[in-house]
Amino acid sequence: MRMLIRWISPVVALVGLLVVGNAWAGEEKIALDKLPKAVLDAAKAKFPDAELVGGGKEDEDGKVTYEVSLKDKGQKVDVELTADGTILAIEKAIAVKNLPKEVAEALEHKHPKATIKRVEEITKQDKIAAYEVLLVTARKKKIWEVTFDPRGKFVKQEEKKAKEKEEKEEKEDKDEKK
After folding, report:
1. Is the dihedral of CA 39, 156, 147, 151 positive or negative?
2. pTM of the predicted model, to two decimals?
């Protein structure tokens, strides 16, 4: 019994940390009908022919934003908005071949032989602000999200966890089958 308690205690502590960690992240999926009306109206106005497929809410440092995921002309698009419907950013999936030459060259220089999993064009205030590339390195099999500005200047890189990768790929697979 004592061995069982010694084993269970760390497991309970770990689960508690994971739950608290997720709460700190402040991200949650929410049904479309639970989004503020202004958020839905703004997303529909920007993409009138798109199919709304999901919603989310994020609370980061007390700042609440909403996300509307949609399919527009066969492309996956995520719109980040404030509660009053102000569009903060639009993330649109694009084909690798549509990356600007400068960005493609910078990516090849930074991560030669990497496998590109996803490319997103980030728009802010109706201007392309950045490109995010999700990739797997050739040797180490690490998963990175690498960001470049529109001229190919490296902005940042962050390692993605395997669970995040699996969740994103599952969601993308479901979206593609629709």
Report:
1. positive
2. 0.72
